[in-house]
Amino acid sequence: MCFSIDSPDSLENIPEKWTPEVRHFCPNVPIVLVGNKKDLRSDAQTVRELQKMKQEPVKYEQGKAMADQIGAASYIECSAKTKDGVREVFEMATRAALAAKKKKKHRCVML
């Protein structure tokens, strides 16, 4: 599940809109929360535009707190523009999926 670091509103939509939908249609699937556009956190123009609306870029700690709040398996940030963290996003998603699959396999079922 993704949100944009330059859009605090997109982070607010995570628990209110996206988490319930994902949990409904994909129950028992681990969620990796991803903060996109990491490069814009320190972009002067982005910061100025957000300040006009009395906002600021989403801080790492806010993203991590949201991941904890929604019960995400992990939290990571990336920038497609600079390629920072992109590979790690896919690695983390793969690890989360494989860990969930492994847990599911060792379950006992009584008939």
TrEMBL record:
Keywords: GTP-binding, Nucleotide-binding. It comes from the Eukaryota. PROSITE patterns: RAB, RAS, RHO. The keyword GTP-binding applies. GO terms for molecular function: GTP binding; GTPase activity. GO terms for biological process: small GTPase-mediated signal transduction. InterPro entries: P-loop_NTPase (IPR027417), Small_GTP-bd (IPR005225), Small_GTPase (IPR001806), Small_GTPase_Rho (IPR003578). Gene3D superfamilies: P-loop containing nucleotide triphosphate hydrolases. This is Ras-like GTP-binding protein Rho1.
